[in-house]
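Example record for the data management plan.
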Amino acid sequence: SSASSGVNANYTTIDNCTFFGGYRGVTLQGSTSNFSEGNQVLNCTFNGQDDEGIWVFYQDSMDLIGNSFVPSPFTTFYEGMDISDISNAKINANMVNNPVGRGVEIDNFNDRIVATTSTEVVNNMIISSQAGFDFFDVEETNIFHNSLVGTPGILFNDFDESEIVNNIFTSPSGKAADF
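Corresponding structural encoding:
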């Protein structure tokens, strides 16, 4: 349940599912003192949500891999994924096509608990009217082989000890990458 903070799921895999409509497709929320562990959302389709396809907070060792996102045609703002306070994650091979907001917002990666491995953000395709990836307070993250279109394609604020290699950042106006 996403009604309150708490460890609501550990080592749960959601694989090859389709989510239509709703405010959000999937919500996974741990707590500041007890992160959820080992959850995975793999190869799912999110279509027609009003706010986010995936919303995750307070997670350790989470995989978000191979998912696709398209917002509701009636929403005025959308994020494919809103990810906050996670460590040791893999955000790989996702596709977001979003004409009304950010592709993916990522806050506090490897920041609240000690990372045992670098977070991966690899091989994602984002087309967005605002920032393709919006990173805030991110540490020890490898950003490899992504193709991002947005305004800007990628946005960084408080970004430390990370690598950015072989990406394509594009913006129809303004900066393609904003550090």
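Summary line stored alongside the record: The CA atoms of residues 36 and 118 lie 18 Å apart.
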